[in-house]
Amino acid sequence: MTAEAHRYRITPINPGAHLFEVTLLIAEPDPAGQVVSIPAWIPGSYLVRDFARNVVAIRAEAGDRSLEITKVDKSSWQLEVCHEPVTISCEIYAYDLSVRGAHLDTTHAYFNGPCVFPQVAGQEDRECDVEICPPPKPLGSDWRVATSLRPKDAERYGFGRYFADSYDELIDHPVEIGNLAIGEFEAGGIAHSIAVRGHARIDMARVCQDLATLCEKHLELLGAPRDLDRYLFLLLVLPDGYGGLEHRWSSSLVCSRGDLPVRGEAGMKNSYRKFLRLCSHEYFHLWNVKRIKPERFTPYDLRAEVHTGLLWVFEGITSYYDSLQVMRSGLITRESYLELLGSTITRVIRARGRFRQSVEESSFDAWTKFYKPDANTSNAVVSYYTKGSLIALALDMTIRRDTDGTHSLDEVMRTCWERFGETGEGMPERGLESVTQSVSGLDLREFFERYVRGTGDLPLQKLLRDFGILMRFRPQSGSDDCGGKPSASENPPPPWLGLHVSGKSGKDIVTLVHTDSPAERAGIAPGDELLALNDVRVTAGNLDTRLREYHAGDRVLVSVFRNDGLLQFKVRLADPPEDTCWLEIDANRNEEAEQRQAAWFAGS
Ligand SMILES: [Zn+2]
Known about the structure:
Blueprint: E1 6-14, E2 19-26, E3 35-37, E4 55-62, E5 65-67, E6 69-71, E7 76-79, E8 86-93, E9 103-105, E10 108-111, H1 113-116, E11 119-120, E12 128-132, E13 144-147, E14 150-151, E15 160-164, H2 167-170, E16 175-178, E17 181-187, E18 190-197, H3 204-222, E19 230-238, E20 243-246, E21 250-256, H4 270-284, H5 311-328, H6 334-350, H7 359-364, H8 377-380, H9 386-402, H10 409-421, H11 431-440, H12 445-452, H13 460-466, E22 469-474, E23 499-502, E24 509-513, H14 518-522, E25 529-533, E26 536-537, H15 543-547, E27 555-562, E28 565-572, E29 580-585, H16 591-602
Parallel strand pairs: 1-12, 18-19, 19-21
Antiparallel strand pairs: 1-2, 2-8, 3-7, 3-11, 4-5, 4-8, 6-7, 9-10, 10-16, 12-15, 13-16, 14-15, 17-18, 20-21, 22-29, 23-24, 25-26, 25-27, 27-28
The protein binds zinc ion.
Zinc ion binds near residues 246, 281, 285 and 318.
């Protein structure tokens, strides 16, 4: 006899007040007093968010009798002893419009399972049946339901009953409900779809075609998981937004309206390239982190932080492949790919935090450092995304070069998939290192010691040259110069002051002061309101122009307000650091470099 499923029902009961009603019928509650809880975090986003804080009311009933329900910690409740089926009902406030949250208003409903579905302690392996109900009329007449949950009696894109094999699966299917534009396509013989909210003019045919090309490329690289019988991209279009969260059968994405091609628009604009890269990133995660997981995430403990030094493997390697696969699928040119790579190198070398923290430490401390950025983050924290992606690049190139092209990171990832993903075992903390060594036959202990557990700069100059690519450096030409190109502006680079200013709040506020910069030496601090350079007013918008009136070595007087007090600092401007990278194909590359480059670009 199989255990009875947990029966959930979710209703956007009061969209004006942003309230969902969630009920849960537990057929066989723990006779000692059932405990239920709401996760503290959502897999993929390593920050304790305490979703239980949005539970505004909770009660329990058995038949027509109400049961006592006692809160036992920040996220859990215990029911009084009961030997018959119990229904728990809660009201949940949902007004977080992010891929990690839940959001409900009169225009749509969106939720992630960890925000809304209580977990039944000790019975997490039971099937979960979930009925998704419409909002009160007249709302919802043109709303459709987009989710990768499997339908029980619901029609395609309809309200009704869905199911998942376990709680872990239940909370891995975000749900978007609203007036959606839906496109469908096939990749690798698997049905894929994209549900878009907020953009009726999108060129759906083109987006579907491009995504099909991209998904095929990923499926070719690692092979379709046996349980991948469907995949859904959920996309929310905002005036200005960017982000994504991965799941096993879907991903939740946010992009800006201008990123997407409209009907009749041709060409590959940079913002659409960025969108394709985002889709590529989340899709690669369906293997790397959703099925190949750190051992410490098998299973997830959603009550508190779970520390692993491997996030750089899951985010860094995924970031390496996101743009590489967009290029390998032919959607962008090699030159365009090298531009992206140059920008990534620029981002890494501009942040001095790379000398203070290794990617392994950054992974471990993600919960309290990377996910809680402050004004000092760039000086103290290394991004396991960007430096992680460069480690992946260096590892791929080292393996390819030192094994004469017989092995590659592609093969390492396929082996990780077979060993840790298909088996469901999870990757041990030194798992990638041991697979890399056994696949390549190389002794890479020093590589991992120096670049993963240490803070060494990667030997990219040499590696890239061995692949027929030259790595060039120049000073930053202005605050909007992200690198990747030989030059970003006609203007000469301004002398170096060493701070970032944001004008977004209506005031021009210093948001970052670089380590060892003239600004830091003079005493300017994050939070200062920038007023003038010598006796001329300066803003975030004209700082570069004002600085260009001076030269390295000049002394200037910088005036700021700090806590309403006027402060003035004498600053000696310096030569701008050569911290901006771009890459170019070496016209004088030899035959060997030419062959390596061709194999790397082609993924062969
Ligand atoms: Zn990611």
